[in-house]
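From the pipeline queue, job 12 of 40. The input is one protein chain; the requested action is below.

Action: predict structure.
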Amino acid sequence: MKTSQLKQLIKEEIKKILSENLQDTSLDLIEPGHYLVKFTTDNRDGMDEIEYEFTKQDKLSDINAYNFWRGIAKDHPLFGKEDSVVSVEKI
């Protein structure tokens, strides 16, 4: 495998990993767009998801990523104190 092919493969894998789960990625590194936030419900007895439109304004937020996405999930009526965000994916 040529060096250029290897570099391209590595870049693609990094993009794939970053797009698969963005829950711990710094908000300033996330591109505006439509995201799917998956989270536990009913004190971790269930799972659900919510779609969220991430904006340029969100990108400028000084809150850490964990708290930001948890705040989005808190809007769901079944999301409780013991629940957590499982993943954030760009859709």
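Job complete. The CA atoms of residues 71 and 85 lie 10 Å apart.
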